[in-house]
Write a structure and sequence with these properties.
It is built from 10 helices and 29 strands. By secondary structure, it is an alpha+beta fold. It has 5 domains: 91 residues, no CATH class; 95 residues, Roll (Outer membrane lipoprotein wza fold like); 66 residues, wza like fold (2-Layer Sandwich); 73 residues, Outer membrane lipoprotein wza fold like (Roll); 147 residues, Outer membrane lipoprotein wza fold like (Roll), CATH 3.10.560.10. A 5-stranded mixed sheet has the order 8-7-11-9-10, covered by helices on one side. A 5-stranded mixed sheet has the order 13-12-16-14-15, with no helix packed on it. Strand 22 and strand 23 form a beta hairpin. Helix 7 runs antiparallel to helix 8 and helix 7 runs antiparallel to helix 10. It is elongated.
């Protein structure tokens, strides 16, 4: 559970001293504590509170085109702009603000007192020539004004009984030079109404190591006509839209001061800051921090030498930064409370904010449950740290399996063929098993007694409803849930599920109890709520390999309550 969720939940159920609920037809879970035998624990119960990272800080791929995917260095903020998205869509120049230039073509139709239907080019002087009317100056006239301008000129000759229609049919293409710190400097074709991003994209985008995303200049005849800050476009949607002319030059200036941001942020980036804005406050306006960030580590170089300073977040806005600085944001606050969750059969809130030293029995003694509906002796806990250790253990087991059998040498061609089949078998199994996500269930109840362990942040305590059925899954013909019948064994229930499949291992039928305990079916008497898992056979004559794979199957069944076959 994330810390920001903790804060929300805390206002629901902050109970420094746990309140005892009193509800008719309910009982409090007062249970004596005891130790659970080691062989019946899914994972060892720690004696001390384990401090673990409660938030996954790993970031994924941002945008459709992964940039520097193989590098640990953050990409520049704005680099994802240039993946071909702008170069594929050209403007047509027909919007209302487009200004007519020489070379454009105007469709003219006149009817009534005179009939004229022509496509007229705009000549070098910016005129169109209308028969019987003469030249009409249209250079610089906007598309929305074109009809009115031509109509006024025609009316000077034909004041009555004449109708005029105009339309801009074609525009003069332009070629724009793109230079400076771009990937592929050159001369690129477009239309006058294309954006600067269109031409930059054609040039392969800005050089992520050398080019500036803050200073992009558009120059005409040696004079600056517009200047773009792509950060302003990314954050506010603002971008200068000059009408390009043939021969204009788009220049990307060299990169300004850069600050690298990592840590507890939504995405690590290299941010470019103008020299006049090198401060913590300006950086905070750009970086997207996670909600629980409390401190900042600043590393860099100054005239007096290297620095590494740790600031509270509130002090950081006043800090002066320098080119090349690295800023690491961190959630370094330690809450005085933990948040745990209840699931199953109970009354009251589902989440509790508790003191950090709260124990399971403290919570259970304050929770009211339906007297006849709750299996109070089968409490269990799902814990994030246990799930993580189970995943690590499974991953290591799969790695050892691959190393043991995929690297073995063959002394004969026949043996080599056997090795190939074994390798295919192992790779199939490893691929399936690697996708399993353990649930982190801990066995804390045994023979009606519950271990009074210290709770951890994010724990989910299960108070199961009293069941009246069993679940049969794995290698059976019809996996299903069936009503419990006293006196029947695992074979009886499996027959009710259509019997074993051809791949079933009759020697490895497991039972998962409500409390999370996993046992061999032959060792116990079934109870309501049990889940029967039938493991598959391992189709190999290699005894050692079969044992290894079977052990991993058992490991998966304990960690995730699922059956993974080959």
């Amino acid at each position: 559970m994330k810390p920001q969720q903790q804060k929300t939940f805390a206002k629901w159920a902050l109970i420094p001293a746990l309140l005892v609920l009193s509800i008719n037809s309910c009982i409090a879970l007062g249970i004596e504590s005891s130790a659970i035998p080691v062989d019946q624990q899914a994972e060892a119960i720690p004696d001390k509170l384990e401090i673990t990272d409660r938030i996954n800080r790993k970031s994924g791929t941002y945008g459709p085109v992964p940039l520097q995917a193989n590098s640990s260095e953050p990409i520049p903020f704005g680099a994802h702009l240039f993946g071909g998205g702008f170069r594929g869509v050209r403007a047509d120049g027909m919007n209302s603000n487009y200004r007519v230039v020489p070379g454009d073509q105007v469709t003219l139709r006149i009817w009534g007192a005179v009939e004229i239907s022509r496509v007229l080019p705009v000549d070098a002087q910016g005129n169109i020539f209308i028969p019987s009317v003469g030249p009409v100056q249209v250079n610089g006239v906007t598309h929305s004004q074109l009809d009115a301008t031509v109509r006024a000129a025609v009316k000077t000759v034909y004041p009555k009984q004449v109708q005029v229609y105009t339309n801009l049919q074609g525009i003069q293409p332009v070629a724009v030079f793109v230079t400076g710190y771009v990937s592929n400097p050159g001369r690129y074709a477009g239309t006058p109404n294309d954006s600067a991003l269109y031409f930059l994209d054609q040039a392969g985008g800005i050089d992520s190591l050398l080019g500036s995303y803050r200073n992009v200049r558009i120059v005409r005849n040696g004079e600056l006509i517009a200047q773009a800050d792509l950060y302003d476009f990314l954050l506010n949607g603002k971008l200068p839209r000059p009408q390009f002319q043939d021969g204009d030059t788009l220049i990307v200036d060299p990169q300004g001061p850069v600050i690298t941001v990592t840590g507890d942020v939504e995405r690590s980036y290299r941010y470019e800051l103008p020299a006049a804005q090198l401060s913590g406050s300006k950086l905070l306006q750009l970086a997207r921090l996670k909600a629980d960030v409390s401190h900042v580590l600043l590393r860099g170089s100054r005239d007096q030498g290297p620095i590494s300073v740790y600031y509270p977040l509130n002090d950081f806005p006043q800090i002066a930064l320098s080119d090349g600085d690295e800023v690491l944001f961190s959630a370094d606050q330690r809450d005085e409370t933990i948040v745990v969750q209840l699931e199953g059969s109970y009354y009251g809130p589902s989440r509790y904010a508790l003191p950090k030293d709260a124990r399971l029995q403290d919570l259970l003694n304050s929770v009211a449950v339906p007297k006849e509906l709750t299996e109070v002796s089968s409490v269990s806990i799902r814990r994030l740290s246990v799930a993580a250790r189970q995943k690590e253990s499974l991953t290591e087991s799969l790695r050892r399996l691959e190393n043991s059998y995929l690297t073995a040498a063959s002394s004969t061609p026949d043996e080599a063929q056997i090795r190939v089949r074994e390798a295919e078998l192992i790779q199939t199994f490893v691929s399936r098993a690697a996708r399993v996500q353990p649930i982190g269930r801990m066995v804390v109840a045994n023979k009606g007694e519950i271990a009074n362990i210290r709770l951890q942040d994010g724990d989910v305590i299960t108070l199961p409803e009293r069941p009246d059925s069993l679940l049969i899954s794995g290698e059976v013909l019809v996996p299903q849930s069936v009503i419990y019948s006293a006196g029947q064994n695992a074979s009886d229930y499996i027959n009710r599920a259509g019997g074993l499949s051809a791949q079933a291992d009759v020697e490895r039928i497991l039972v998962v109890r409500l409390n999370g305990e996993v046992r061999q079916a032959s060792e116990i008497t079934l109870k309501p709520g049990d889940e029967i898992l039938v493991l598959p056979k391992v189709p190999t004559k290699n005894l050692q390999m079969a044992v290894s794979i079977t052990q991993i199957m058992y490991q998966i069944a304990v960690a995730a309550r699922v059956v993974v076959g080959l």
